[in-house]
Amino acid sequence: MSHRRAGFKVGPDNLPDGFRPRIVANRFTVQAIKRKLIERSKIKRQFFKSQANAEPQPPTIPSYSPEPSPGSGHEIDPAPLHPDRQRLLDGSSGPSQRAKEPNSVAEPPAMSRKDREQEKQKKLQDRARHQKAMLKARGGIHSVDRRQKKLGKEAPLLLEKARRLMNSG
């Protein structure tokens, strides 16, 4: 006698990574999930069988108007093309009549080397001044004991730093 295969298991062990809710531990929930999986696989199997048995048909373009029969006698005349569309179809590749829109963001003029150096020096001085003020607010360089930060003294400096970041960015 051959050993019978034991189906498949749907417990928390076989769920995708990151999907481990507590509800899955419930036996009834596990059975419901298993039933859904079996039903979906049966539907997929039926669909693929029907697709394999069906003859390949040429793709049809859906149309909302009824197709006129060949012997009906009346044919639909197409509407005249819009002049702009007609120009595009004719292929007149002349220069465009549309004016260029001005650039909303104007490029700043190139800075001279001297200006860049001055700006760099100013940033370094501001940074040094800010560091010195923060040290003073925290209790100085030689502060031996590690007390809590005095946010009341640091707050104006931090606000100034935030304003500078907002203005530069």
From TrEMBL:
| Ranges annotated as biased composition (Pro residues) | 56-69
Q: Where are the transmembrane segments?
A: none
Chain positions covered by the region annotation Disordered: 47-155
Q: Would you tell me the protein name for this molecule? A: rRNA-processing protein FYV7
Q: Where is the composition biased (Basic and acidic residues)?
A: 74-88, 112-128
Q: In which domain of life is the source organism classified?
A: Eukaryota
**What is the species of this protein?**
Eremomyces bilateralis CBS 781.70
